[in-house]
Amino acid sequence: AALAAVRHLLANEAAALAGESEGVHQMRIALRRLRAALSAFRKWLPREDLRRLRRCLAPLSRVLAPARDLDVFAGELLSEAESALSQEIDFAPLRRAIAARREGLLEELRRELLSQRHTAFILRLLRSFDALPRSAGKGKKQTLGALAPRLLARRRAKVRKKSRHFARLSAAERHKLRIAVKRLRYDFELLQGLFAVDEAGTFARRLKRVQDGLGYANDVGTARALVQRLSHNGRDGAVAQEGALVVAFHERALEERSPKLRKDLRRLNRSAALWREDDRKASSG
Q: DSSP character for 131?
């Protein structure tokens, strides 16, 4: 699974270099899965190697994150609002500001992907994951299958804790909940092969619905900050006005979707834990 995340990253480099939004998106997903793998395998990796690999993730993440945020804003939020509001306003100034900002970010991404630093990072990742032992521990073997229930139970407990009194959570608290759900989802995807297919598929779909709902709220929050940057803190009046219309449109949609998100979250929290010892499928299966 860890090596699959590296292959996922490499398979989308050409598309990202070409400026394709899906290539940028898939590289960012691969990067998140790599973080999940490093967390899951931290007991097997030397501490210094783990710290070095995490540091190496940072330069690529710093470029991919804003590029993907801009693509979400232009390709999803703006497009949807534009379709609904196109008779009222022309979004051309906002589109031009997005295009200029995106080209600058893509140039930064190209420099990073073609750098010696990035090549060295990929080689270090491959060596580290290839050297992972099948088991580790003092006195007895600790397989990934044995450690999975503990890891997933800890992730799930954080989701439940952070989702209490959901309707009263602040934007910052909902952001922390989104991160907790995202970490549970990526760890579960990494370890999903340890569980029965049908039950794992149901749990994964519930996780995805909650993450998508929380992700939409995060995208709207990110859009507010993006509009500020694109309009140079309001100095470009046309861009600021058009951006404010997009944000307001999605804030209304967010309010309408809130009951469904609460329902999905309750369903996720009430789901049976697949990683209980008596429910877990043997990895030798």
A: T
Q: What is the largest CA-CA distance in the chain?
A: 71
Q: What is the pLDDT of residues 185-220, one digit of tens each?
A: 988 888 877 787 788 889 999 999 999 999 999 999
Rounded CA-CA distance 120/122 in Å is 6
Helix (H) or strand (E) holding 193: none
Residues 59, 43: Cα–Cα separation, whole Å: 25
CA–CA separation, 111 vs 119, rounded Å? 12
Instruction: Answer whether 204's CB lies under 8 Å from 188's CB.
Output: yes
- CA 18 to CA 177: how far, in whole Å? 34
Note the pLDDT tens digit of each residue in 65-117: 999 999 999 999 999 998 888 666 789 999 999 999 999 999 999 999 999 99
First and final CA of the chain: distance in angstroms? 17
Q: Which two tokens stand for residue 51?
A: 């710290």
User: What's the CA dihedral at 169, 174, 180, 185 to 10 degrees?
Assistant: 120
Pair 155, 190: CB distance under 8 Å: no
